Amino acid sequence: MLNKRLPLFLLLMSLAPVSALLGSETIPQMFRDLQRKAELHAVIETLKVDATNLPSASPDPTKLRPGQAITVEAKVVRVLGGSVKVKPGSVITIRYDWVPKPVGEPAAPAPIPVLRSGITRQAWLNQEGGDNFVPAAFAYSFNEVPAQLPVTGGPVAD
Questions:
Q1: What is residue 151's predicted lDDT score, i.e. its pLDDT?
Q2: What is the DSSP string of the chain?
Q3: Of 12, 33, 38, 60, whose CB has the highest number of CB atoms within 10 Å?
C-alpha cells in the first residue's frame, strides 16, 4: 500500500547520510515537525491488529525486503490536538506498510513500529478519508503514553 506521503519518506531517507554531517538532531527534528503538523494527535487503544504479507517490490531475489500491510482498529481514548474532529470513544482504522530496516544501513530510518492489540499509545496521524488514518511521522508516529497527560487537550473517553 503506497500512500501520498511516500515521496516525503523517500526524501527523508535520502537526507539520512547528511544528518551525520549536520548533527544527530537533524532527522529527529524533522520528525518532530511532522508530529506538530499531524492532523490528529491522540491517545489510542488498539483493539485489533491485522498484518498481511506484501509482495516484494524488487525483481532481484537477492534484494527481497519482505514487509507487511498493517491494519489497526483503535479506539480514540483522548484527543490531544490536531484539526480533525474526532471524539473520544470513536473507533478509527490506521493503515500503513511495515518494511524492516535494511541490514547494514545504519543511516536508514527506522520502520514504523507494528502495534500489538490491547496497548495504549500516543499517536500522530493524518486522515486519509472518513475514519481512515495513516501515521504522520513515520517511525515517530506512535509513542508510549507519558505518566502525566496534560490537563488540557480534550476530554477522555469513558
A1: 39
A2: ---TTHHHHHHHHHHHHHHHHH-TTHHHHHHHHHHHT-SEEEEEEEEEEEEEEEPPS-SSGGG---EEEEEEEEEEEEEEE-SS---TT-EEEEEEEE-PPPTT-TTSPPPPPPP-TT-EEEEEEEEEETTEEEESSGGGSEEEPPSS--S-S--B--
A3: 38
